[in-house]
Amino acid sequence: MYCNYCGKVIQDDANLCAYCGTRLGSVAGRRKLMRSRANRKIAGVCAGFAEYFDLDVTVVRVVWLIVALFGGGGVLAYIIAWIVMPEEPEYVPVAPPATPPQPYQGS
Ligand SMILES: [Zn+2]
Questions:
Q1: What number of other Cβ atoms are within 10 A of residue 10's Cβ?
Q2: Which parts of the chain register pLDDT below 70?
Q3: For residue 33, how far is its CA from the centre of ligand 1 (angstroms)?
Q4: E strands, 13-72, in order
């Protein structure tokens, strides 16, 4: 794989780039561009981008809003991202067991 900071080829299982010392997130696995459930305002698109690019979600929203207001393509881009980006899987806390069959309670 390649260091995403300096671009040099490094060991596949390296946690640290040998050339520039950048810590690589190999432990967390490859991040996917997904719509965030936790930080969503509308569809979680901005939060998803923020998580993916490791940016502040507020910055992403502000930039997106500026693009939408001045460029006009922002709203369309948001809708496209909304459709295209998969939604982050829902984190279900340990699911309660299915209701066990109730024992027959007498008469
Ligand atoms: Zn590097």
A1: 19
A2: 25-30, 91-97, 106-107
A3: 23
A4: none
> How far apart are the C-alpha atoms of 37 and 51, rounded to whole Å?
11
39 Cα–ligand 1 center, Å: 31
Distance 9 CA to ligand 1 centre (A): 8
pTM over 0.85: no
Q: Tell me, yes or no, whether 12 and 58 share the same domain.
A: no
86's tokens: 């998969």
Q: Could you tell me if 84 and 73 are in contact, meaning their C-beta atoms sit under 8 angstroms apart?
A: no
Distance between Cα 60 and ligand 1 center (Å): 26
- Residue 78 belongs to some domain of the structure: yes
46, 70: one domain: yes
